[in-house]
Write a structure and sequence with these properties.
about 240 residues, alpha/beta, Rossmann fold, 2 domains, four-stranded antiparallel β-sheet, 9 helices, 10 strands, about 40% helix, globular, binds adenosine-5'-triphosphate, L-isoleucine transmembrane transporter activity, L-valine transmembrane transporter activity, L-phenylalanine transmembrane transporter activity, nucleotide-binding
Length: about 240
């Protein structure tokens, strides 16, 4: 479904990504982990199109999208969340989701977009807040609103950037169940998360980045038992 080959991204003298390869197959949850600053969000942005790659290629559903604008990629079926949710505070929760639906591939009219919003908010479990202002939401609800906005685009591939960060264990468990249900609905998922345990519990396949390079990939079991990963990501004391 998605194939990134030799992705390099430089910011001036900083090489955030130095030739990264990354593949997602249809219906997979792919975990993307790595230490702070290893390039995870940069890779997500190169896939979503909000950052242009310095070199390398991105292919989605058989088409080369390396130079496509973010909205073209969204229309093709790629949607994303942001690590720090930035909802539109002057609109209600439902309107925030409806606006995403109006700008998605189907370009829904406002009444249809509001219907889509109601369905999606129900799906993520925050429908009781549809008429609320965003400022009334807790962190947990804001994170789920972020997922709802991405789902409103009816994506084939959803890119989740630390959507469970800062949640308590029961909220995170609810989030994991939601992410797992996306796969059951045939949506492919790229899931960035600091909590390796959470990723490995959900992912079909995992990639580990370190300093902008591929460090390891494989099933969660393979990755978690990889000595390089233990050393670089979990720290040398992880054996103990
Ligand atoms: N817009 C930018 N301008 C300059 N440097 C940047 C920019 N965005 C990212 N970087 C640098 O690129 C590298 C990779 O950053 P990135 O945010 O992709 O890492 P990350 O793995 O997502 O980190 P974290 O887990 O902390 O979110 C870092 O050295 C970061 O400082």
């Amino acid at each position: 479904m998605l194939e990134c080959t030799g992705i390099t991204k430089r910011f001036g003298g900083i090489v955030a990504l130095g030739g990264v390869d990354f593949t997602v197959r249809e219906g997979q949850i792919v975990g993307l982990v790595g230490p702070n600053g290893s390039g995870k969000t940069t890779l997500l942005s190169c896939i979503a199109g909000s950052l242009a790659v310095t070199s390398g290629s991105v292919t989605f559903a058989g088409s080369d999208i390396t130079r496509s604008k973010p909205h073209t990629r969204a229309h093709a079926g790629i949607s994303r969340t942001f690590q720090i949710p930035r909802p539109l505070n002057s609109f209600s929760v439902a309107e925030n989701v409806a606006i995403a639906a109006m700008f998605g591939s189907e370009a829904l009219s406002k009444p249809l977009a509001m219907e889509r919003a109601a369905t999606v908010l129900d799906r993520v479990g925050i429908s009781k807040h549809q008429s609320s202002q965003v400022s009334a939401l807790t962190l947990h609800e804001r994170k789920f609103l972020e997922i709802a906005r991405a789902l409103a685009l009816d994506p084939k591939l959803i890119l989740l950037d630390e959507v469970l960060g800062g949640l308590n264990p029961s909220e995170a468990a609810e989030g994991m169940e939601l992410i797992s249900s996306l796969r059951s609905d045939g949506i492919s998922v790229v899931y960035i998360e600091h909590n390796v345990k959470a990723v490995s519990a959900l992912a079909d396949y995992m990639y580990v980045l370190n300093r902008g390079q591929n460090l390891a990939e494989g099933t969660p079991q393979e990755v978690l038992s990889n000595g390089l990963v233990i050393e670089a990501y979990l720290g040398g004391g992880a054996h103990a």
